[in-house]
């Protein structure tokens, strides 16, 4: 009788162990993306799915306030992976701008992804045709400390304007910004995101929009002063009603990671991402490549990412 009970107990434990392995065997990781109206959120969902499918890791993406908050949450141990801008990450590592006195030393890079275009969006009948025309206007500049906010601050300064003194600054998300433009509550908005951006597409479908250009001489000054900027062009037809090219600047989106993740896990994540970009259906997937993954990276790579890029011959031993 005891033998039968022993066999039964053993069998039940075996079944329970197999069930637990099947249900909970994957390591759970969290990925911070961005607002639902931007590029990070939909793209992050696809990248998380690829990593989950290709590795023994289960990556769960979530919406967030994007760049600066994402880096802060990584540093605090509240997330494992996150999207951010290369300029914001560089600021965090140096302890400047929104990270003044709070330098981050426990967040590392996986790699860069694609250019993030600074788009100054307004309506076609606003009368705003240059950055200087923003003076005295209600302008969304993103949340204080966000990548968009820093971009707005630097671009306005390059035109002799300041957020504090020369515009009526509004701290809105991308969706709130485009809704505000549509409703007439604000005049323009800085939106730093990969193009086409969902919230801007939605606005262009109902409202005649314009995107304010940045003059070439100012672009040259910005790139010289802040090397993480690059000259960029928004092609004609990117949005309904935009019939000509718009000159502007861009930074790079990147994927950052907590230094607490193991070398093996980050190696698997890096390999899964850069070897399966063809599975990404989002428009920005075409721009993600291991050959450009080290562009604009201003911080150290995670050892797992470094191992992958060395194997691919993209880093010297």
Automatic annotation (TrEMBL):
> Per its UniProt record, what PROSITE patterns does this chain match?
PROKAR_LIPOPROTEIN (PS51257)
According to the record, the signal peptide region is 1-21
Q: What keywords are annotated for this sequence in UniProt?
A: Signal
Q: Which domain of life is it from?
A: Bacteria
- Has the keyword Lipid metabolism been applied to this entry? no
Which SUPFAM superfamilies does the record associate with it?
Answer: Periplasmic binding protein-like II
**PANTHER family attached to this UniProt entry:** SLL1037 PROTEIN
Protein's name in the database: TAXI family TRAP transporter solute-binding subunit
Look up and give the organism this protein is from: Ornithinibacillus xuwenensis
